[in-house]
Amino acid sequence: MKKLLLLIAFLSGVFFSTHAQELKVLEFQADLSITDAVRFPKEDFNGDRCGLIKLGLVLPDAIFEGDIISSEYKDGEWWIYMMKGANWINIKSSKYLPLRYEFEPIQSNVTYIMNIEKPQIAYEGPTGTVKIECNIKDAEVFVDGENQGSLKDNKNKIEVPEGKHEIELRHAGYNNERLTVDIKPKQTLTHNITMHAAGTFSLNGISYEMVKLDGGTFTMGTAENINKTATLNIAPIHDVTLRSYSIGATEVTQALWEAVMGSNPSMTQSPNLPVSNVTWDDCQEFIQKLNAQSGSHFRLPTEAEWEYAARAKATDDGKKIPSGSVYKQNGCKSVNECGINPLGIKGMNGNVAEWCQDWFGSYLTEKQTNPTGPAKGTHRVVRGGSYEDLTEWTLRGTTRSHRDPDEASPAIGFRLAMDN
Question: CA 277, CA 280: separation in Å to the nearest integer?
């Protein structure tokens, strides 16, 4: 009888210990206001566009099973591309019991939000130490999403369980900085982390600044009669609502392009000149490599985002050209020597024209929310005018142009955008 009671007690302890390590799904739903599945598309083996599950779960060692095309861990969340029609996923981790979750069939080009609750477990196993040297001494330290206090309070040392972990530093006015560590028992790892002012990032020593824009509603296009062809392109006026996003304070420089791609296609070369002579397809390849190296989700701006930024969140009618805008010149200037608008964004009017994400097409009259342009086309949108242009009209925030996505020009470059 005594042995039986001991066995029951043992099994009860196993049950409660195991149950305490279960993951719990708090939310799973399609969010049609988020268009990442469209902006960063992947296709399944049948050529159909995937659906995208964005999983808010800090588990760097997670393994996913199901009809999955790819999964990548970026910016503190998992991006999981699933085949059209998939209706279940298994999530495995060394720290928790496997989780199987079923849902309605995945649809192409739809982004789904999945949030999972992790149980709070007191860890009593072997640990190691991560020592962090940082330029911001009172930055907050997060381990696997859990706040551990400031670096100062922890004397720059964080004790963590053995295994793989994501460590993130946060401080008001600075970008979050992340690193992944794989710690062994009694091991001490030392990392030097530089935190950058909010809105900037640095890759291989090359910095690039982003300007955060609050979303809003504006009237896109203009009813002004220019000439028959031009007026058809910029009309009819229509209301557009945008979510908040960030856009490059300057055009992408040759220095940044070369740091990512290892070459420079520009005809006139200098580190601080905008990269040019790049096709729309070249820009996509650059962004894909930049995201892989930086762990970010950069993209080209949509045409609506570009116009909203160029017109200083539509506080002007699109006719204003900032002082210092570069046109009627023999070549472009440094990205920091161009006209600057009230939002602190440089070179949107002139210098080099800029690729946008959208296919080119006629405007619609209906009100739109976060538009991404036609589903297909032959030419991609180009905005902003360039040093080659002879009139201010071509530099306006409402003026549109377009080129074949395989076409390159020494007068066309681009700037980056990303969701906030």
Answer: 10
